[in-house]
Amino acid sequence: MQDGFVGVAARSPQVRVADVDFNVDACLHEATDAAKFDGARVVVLPELCVTGYTCADLFWQDALLDAAEAGVARLAEGLADLDAIVLVGAPVRVGAKLYNCAVALAGGEVLGIVPKTHIPNYNEFYEARHFCAGPEEISYVDFAGARGVPFGTRQLFSCEEMPNLVVAAEICEDLWVAAPPSIDHARAGATVVCNLSASNAVVGKAAYRRDLVRGQSARLVCGYVYASAGWGESSQDVVFSAHDMVAENGSLLAEGAPFGDARAASEIDVDMLAAERRRLSTFEVAPSAENLGYEVTPFSLAVRETRLTRRVNAHPFVPASVSRRNERCEDVLAIQAHGLAKRLAHTHSQTAVIGVSGGLDSTLALLVCARAFDILGLDRSGIIAVTMPGFGTTDRTHGNATVMADALGATLREVSIVDAVRQHFADIGHDERTHDVTYENAQARERTQILMDVANQEGGLVVGTGDLSELALGWATYNADHMSMYGVNASVPKTLVRHLVRYVADTTDSDELSDVLVDVLETPVSPELLPAEDDGTIAQRTEDLVGPYELHDFVLYQVLRRGFAPRKVLRLARYALGDTYDDETILKWIRVFYRRFFSQQFKRSCLPDGPKVGSVAVSPRGDLRMPSDACATTWLRELEGLR
């Protein structure tokens, strides 16, 4: 359970209607199997699965109810050595009434009994014929050989060894109503909500059920484990499909499709959920569960590392499916273009000035400029694409910049920086043969000066090209490519930049534009500030110097979006990218990320305006308010301990 991950499983055992002994054996098998093979520490079984949901008027028979109570006792005893909390559905008599309940079992004990709140009595459902709505208030009952068991809906089950693992239960229809009990469960501190269900199969219902589960996990910032009745229930009038799901904060982690395997298992990150709730100022929580009238029952689990089976996206900024990726690209381009269009309209600018290098970032910015001009109905000739060859410019990138500007209908200007930079070297007494940071940054600053002055000449504004990955690493020259009048790529990570350019290449009607974009994609990422190789190829490759952007973007997401500690970032990086990079490489570049991220904040503290496009951004006015002189010591020390 290190790093906040908790294995969970939803299982739908085969049952026989009213055959309690058979059903208890099936529940024992499924719970044990889930713990052993899925690594589950929380196991959820369906509604009334001890007896079968479809017993109908047999629920009036004391023989069945006596057998069910004895069956729960046998189940608790049989699971005594299982290192998990198990929630099972059973009918429970309290006073003179019968309740449809979730019974929580752990360590051989009955921890609590949570009755169903909302009893359906419409269409094919007639539960009110047999069951009463459960009370919110907690009382204490004797059941299944246990005395003083908490009974009532306002219950939580809290893991002593892992404080962020707090389990709650609701039953089937409870999820389908306007105000599900899980709302208060989450407000009281539940991070994992378990739904014991017997939801019958009707055409189109599975998709709606899936949306409910995902949506509730998102609204409540929780894990949601849903287990539904399946094979063996009576098919007299309805059929049950064993639709099992595990969701986390809006994402469906695992699903046993209807009429499928009758199981779903994954890992829920309860530490992440707790951190997300802290971050969201609008997530309302009670000072304590007791303030909402909840009973909190502790349970114990052995401390061990949870084996990960869930998918951890190696490219968290880029959807895996082509259709979703294309949709994401269209959304991002629309946000960028409309943001720039608004700024152009507000400043009454008919001209946008952009430095084009033939690299990925300036290519994307130029494409965005073209869209913005189209939105405003402006002639694209008002886009002044300035190519500024210097000491490291290659024929390939220079040629691509020229072709691209022409294909988009922009006005191309070429201004060499070589003579100006040499004059500057003479002015400050710098030896041109010394290829140090002064040599490189002088070129970058000369280019920015040209762009700013051309913008003044033309009454336009300078469009910035730097991307989110570069800003996170501080891979920008202060007051050079770091500065613009509107930075359209400021919250677009490098891994997504590539896909945006690819998307335009694949969808444009211009063969000329498509061909040049493909060549840009195949060109190594480089600032081209050092002289080219003897054969004219690029000598300076960014990823050789600063590290793989694929790995840096992964770390960026885990650090800024999730707030994970270095230990967890390293574990997830190994899990997601271990087939691409060895441990030494991953650890090396994570360390570089932290070192650069902290030391380069001063550049981000004075960024120009630019549109936020995703959940991660570094604007000092928006998402990242970080002191420029913060120390990375704590983070780097933790990494050193992991060597």
3D structure, described in words:
This protein has two domains: 2-299, Carbon-nitrogen hydrolase (Nitrilase/N-carbamoyl-D-aminoacid amidohydrolase, 4-Layer Sandwich), CATH 3.60.110; 322-640, Rossmann fold (3-Layer(aba) Sandwich). Helices cover 38% and strands 18% of the residues. The protein has 19 helices and 20 strands. The strands form four sheets. A seven-stranded mixed β-sheet has the order 13-12-11-10-9-8-15, with helices on one face. A six-stranded mixed β-sheet has the order 5-4-3-2-1-14. Strands 18-17-16-19-20 form a five-stranded parallel β-sheet, with helices on both faces. Helix 1 runs parallel beside helix 2 (62-78) and helix 12 runs antiparallel to helix 13 (511-521). The radius of gyration is 30 Å and the shape is elongated.
C-alpha Rg (nearest Å): 30 Å
Largest sheet: 7 strands, mixed
On the 0-100 scale, what is the average pLDDT?
95
Which geometry do the CA atoms define?
elongated
Strand content: 15-25%
CATH superfamily of the largest domain: HUPs
Q: Determine the CATH topology of the largest domain.
A: Rossmann fold
Please tell me the total number of domains.
2
Distance from N terminus to C terminus (CA atoms, Å) equals 21 Å
What's the CATH architecture of the largest domain? Answer: 3-Layer(aba) Sandwich
Helical segment tally? 19
Q: How would the blueprint of this fold be written?
A:
Elements: E1 5-11, H1 20-37, E2 42-44, H2 62-78, E3 85-94, E4 97-106, E5 109-115, E6 139-143, E7 146-151, E8 155-159, E9 166-171, H3 181-187, E10 192-197, H4 205-219, E11 223-228, E12 244-248, E13 251-256, E14 263-269, H5 270-279, E15 295-299, H6 322-346, E16 352-355, H7 360-376, E17 383-387, H8 395-408, E18 411-414, H9 418-428, H10 437-458, E19 461-464, H11 468-473, E20 486-487, H12 494-507, H13 511-521, H14 542-546, H15 549-561, H16 566-577, H17 583-599, H18 601-604, H19 633-640
Parallel strand pairs: 1-2, 2-3, 8-15, 9-10, 10-11, 16-17, 16-19, 17-18, 19-20
Antiparallel strand pairs: 1-14, 3-4, 4-5, 6-7, 8-9, 11-12, 12-13
